[in-house]
Design brief:
The structure is a homodimer of 114-residue chains. With 114 residues, the first copy, chain A, is of the alpha+beta class. Chain A contains 6 helices and 3 strands; from the N terminus they run ααβααββαα. Chain A is 52% helix and 12% strand. A 3-stranded antiparallel sheet of chain A has the order 1-3-2. The structure holds a DNA duplex (30 and 30 nucleotides).
Chain lengths: 114, 114
Amino acid sequence: MEFSTIEIEKAATILKLLGDKTRLTMVKMLDTNDYCVCEFVEIFKVSQPAISQHVRKLKDAGLVRETRRSQWVIYSLNKESDVLPFVQSLIDHLPKQDFKLQELEQQGLRISCE
Amino acid sequence: MEFSTIEIEKAATILKLLGDKTRLTMVKMLDTNDYCVCEFVEIFKVSQPAISQHVRKLKDAGLVRETRRSQWVIYSLNKESDVLPFVQSLIDHLPKQDFKLQELEQQGLRISCE
DNA sequence: TACTTATATAATAATTTGCTTATATAATGA
DNA sequence: TCATTATATAAGCAAATTATTATATAAGTA
């Protein structure tokens, strides 16, 4: 076997989670940068509660972590997730989403909370 | 880029399709053997129409092909699907399901339509 | 031809999903 | 303290999903 394997049931759960364009894009974006909720709101053109609900599902699956930095909550990929290798091999097939970050910057909407 | 990429939207559609334990298992099984509907019915403990509906979704996505051999309809992976590389890299992480075939054979339920 | 076996399709019901709006909580700053 | 900004949670609703049962179609066989 080439790779470490993951139980079919667990894999199906992850695939279902990522079988949504918004969440899949979020995970691909988080592969190269951290993002706060308000940035996702700008990018995905849906309501703030909708975004909160998506990131919550990712968090419940252990795929992302959240860190509060003053009034913002920053989301990042959880490098310690046991399913990350599986997820990583999957998102490696997706085109980079860096242009979304650049759009944010051009609109002056990138958060930098230092 | 290491791999050929697949559009995010297309990827999300495939992941949603495979985000179901039954369909994901089917695809993993079809990676090493062809199966007919009645065999899937035995294996998955759901009704025959439920199985037909699952394989239909896989077929609509171009992931499997069907061949009629006398009264049986045999399903196989469509080697020409443009998303097969993506799907393949994903199911490579799943444990082999050969034991299911062996169970079928032990119960005398393996179809051989020659 | 009539019966059996294998499969597909239609109709339907229960559950889940993904959004919305309204509201609560948490941190910041005047 | 009070207002503002960022985020989370709750409630409600429409659409999608996945199973079921009933029925249609297709092939094989007596």
